[in-house]
Specification:
about 550 residues, alpha/beta, Rossmann fold, Hect, E3 ligase catalytic domain fold, five-stranded mixed sheet, three-stranded mixed sheet, 17 strands, disordered N terminus
């Protein structure tokens, strides 16, 4: 490390006509509840030193960083102190111990051995006793360098321990954030638990509903700003929380980015989602995104604000390529649902002469007829065709639900299910018996009751029977599933389509719940791919398998 020359020390002596003292205090969460590290105790110790040192000292300021780690040099009070030292407002720094200055040994060495001497600043530390003016040799000793290394290593170990504790809490679904997600508040009796904040929760519900109604994210934030609804950062501050959004300016308002974050937040269905960001290292506090597969997600830890159905519908809409009409807050009704039946690309929305609106193939529009054709359809015709198709699908669901209900009333359904359960249980008992025989077989071989050849023959026979029984059990379980699948209102196809028995108009919310995509063929005809195709097949198979029970 660099050493301070005697010339520099002499310069300080000649220039000093009294010491203008900067007292620096730092307390971090890593210090825990150690009483001697408290801000109060540090202040008392440092003020007491100034009073009893017998030197001409004037305290110009006390700089306090509360809640800042020593590996981060970007501390508000610390940076303000450095500015004051450079402006010659102070020429002496006093701290309690070396770790208060920094837990990064490279930075600590830079301040003590380079910056302070260059600025003609006297450096005093109480533990260990250091004074760059009275005893300059102590500042440059190997012991100080080693202490700085130990301080950094302590921080590294503490960081690893804290991370381990936090990860354990995350795995248990305990909230460890500094501030609850907008719409929630920390439980006053348990800071690791979230409670619904009714006022903000109503805003969250409105955001989800407006988006399902077809409003764009920009349109939603504009509406909230017009209504005078406080954005999350201002709302938290209004509740007395010391919150500052690092991404907002001095006049924070609702933004499309905030709306997008809320719409994607799984916390609103009652799941605890944590660990989405992490710092690069204990020395570099820049946050980086963590892949979704590595997040800590624990389901059902707190009361939901929106239902899973609403959340899933919104996620379905968010995945789609949506375009917003110029100077409008609404998303086009079919935006994100339309596909060319041949090239598969999204369809483009276009208004001709201000009268009729069409959808046409984006490939054709962008690159010409050499790669694809128009595949065009008027929006009003599309609207009517989709509405009619949904109404027909709803009618099918109603008819199937009636048949399922009638089948369920037949006592033979329950008898068939019971018969299959009994058959599965019987086969499973046989399989368990064979497993026991195979276990005893090894004992018989070891005891000499059977020969190796007899062992091989008997084991092969048992393996054959075991394989046959396992195949029978799988077949019976499939038959049992067929006998019970689709027999109640939990079947997703029946449950979703039955809700719209009186549908007379289309909304984006309805499209998101019922339709995957709409494909436009070259002649303008459409093919609709509905959701819940697998559930439809299960219900249809159930009806077909029990058709004999229908009147």
């Amino acid at each position: 490390m660099a050493r301070v020359s005697r010339t520099q020390t002499n310069v300080i002596k000649k220039q000093v006509n009294g010491w203008r003292v900067a007292i620096y205090i730092r307390l971090s969460r890593d210090d825990g509840n150690i009483e001697s590290y408290s801000v109060k105790n540090q202040r008392e110790m440092l003020l007491d030193y100034v009073d009893r040192c017998g030197e001409d000292m004037e305290i110009v300021d006390i700089y306090i960083d509360d809640g800042f780690t020593g590996t981060d040099s970007d501390r508000d009070a610390f940076q303000r102190m450095l500015d004051d030292l450079k402006r010659k407002r102070a020429n002496c720094v006093i701290i309690k111990d070396l770790s208060r200055l920094s837990r990064n040994y490279v930075e600590a060495g830079h301040y003590i051995e380079m910056l302070f001497p260059i600025l003609d600043v006297r450096f005093i530390c109480l533990d260990p006793e250091l004074d760059s003016f009275k005893h300059p040799e102590t500042v440059n000793s190997m012991m100080i360098a080693m202490l700085n290394v130990f301080n950094e290593d302590f921080c590294r170990q503490t960081s690893a321990k804290v991370r381990k504790v936090f990860d354990l809490k995350r795995q248990k679904g305990e909230f460890i954030g500094g501030f609850a997600p907008y719409g929630y508040q920390k439980d006053p009796e348990n800071k690791n638990k979230l409670l619904v904040d009714d006022e903000a929760a109503d805003v969250v519900r409105n955001i989800f509903q407006w988006f399902m109604d077809g409003m764009s994210k920009y349109g939603i934030c504009q509406k909230l700003n017009r209504l005078g609804v406080l954005c999350p950062s201002l709302y938290k501050q209004s509740k007395g929380q010391q919150y500052k959004n690092p991404h907002s300016n001095d006049n924070p308002v609702w933004s499309a980015r905030t709306i997008d974050s809320i719409l994607h937040n799984q916390s609103y269905i009652g799941d605890m989602v944590q660990g989405r960001y992490r710092i690069k290292s204990y020395k570099i506090h820049t946050q980086i995104c963590v892949p979704a597969d590595d997040w800590f997600i624990v389901e059902g830890t707190h009361e939901p604000i929106v239902s899973e159905e609403v959340f899933d519908t919104v996620q379905n809409l968010l995945k789609r390529d949506t375009r917003v009409a110029p100077k409008q807050d609404k998303i086009y009704l079919f935006s994100g649902f339309m596909r060319c039946a041949d090239c598969g690309r999204a369809m483009r929305h276009q208004t001709v002469r201000g009268k009729h609106t069409y959808y046409l193939c984006r490939t054709y529009k962008d690159r010409g007829k050499e790669l694809c054709t128009k595949h065009t359809i008027r929006e009003d015709n599309l609207y009517l065709a989709v509405l009619t198709a949904i109404q027909k699908q709803v009618a099918i669901a109603v008819s199937m639900a009636d048949m399922v209900s009638e089948i369920n009333k037949a006592p033979t359904v329950e008898r068939d299910s019971r018969r299959l359960v009994d058959a599965i249980e019987c086969k499973q008992n046989e399989l368990n018996k064979i497993k026991r025989y195979k276990t005893n077989l090894f004992g018989s071989l070891q005891d000499g009751d059977i020969t190796k050849e007899e062992f091989r023959d008997m084991k092969a026979e048992f393996d054959k029977k075991s394989e046959s029984l396992q195949e029978s059990i799988v077949a019976l379980e499939k038959e049992y599933q067929k006998s019970i699948c689709g027999v109640n209102e939990k079947n997703q196809f029946l449950a979703h389509f039955m809700k719209y028995q009186n549908i007379t108009e289309l909304k984006r919310e309805i499209l998101a719940k019922l339709i995957e995509n709409i494909y436009v063929q070259e002649n303008g005809n459409i093919v609709i791919r509905f959701r819940f195709a697998d559930e439809y097949r299960l219900a249809a198979e159930f009806i077909e398998n029990n058709e004999r029970l229908l009147a």
